[in-house]
Amino acid sequence: MIPMVDLKVQYEALRDEILEQITEVLESSRYILGPKVEELEKEIAAYHGVREAVGVASGTDALNLSLKALGIGEGDEVITTPFTFFATVEAIIYQGARPVFVDIDPETLNIDPGKIEERITERTKAILPVHMFGMPADMERITEIASRYNLFVVEDCAQSFGAHIRGRKTGSFGDAGCFSFYPSKNLGAYGDGGLVTTDDAKIAGRMRVLRNHGSEKGYIHHSIGLNSRLDEIQAAVLLVKFKRIDHYLTLRREKARFYTERLCSTVQCPAERNGFHHVYHQYTIRSPLRDRIKSYLYEQGISSVIYYPVPLHLQDALKGAGYCRGDFPVAERASREVLSLPIYPEMERADQERVCEAVRKAVA
Ligand SMILES: *Cc1c(COP(=O)(O)O)cnc(C)c1O
Question: Which of 76, 114, 218, 237, CA to CA, is 20 to 30 A from 25?
Answer without folding.
Answer: 218
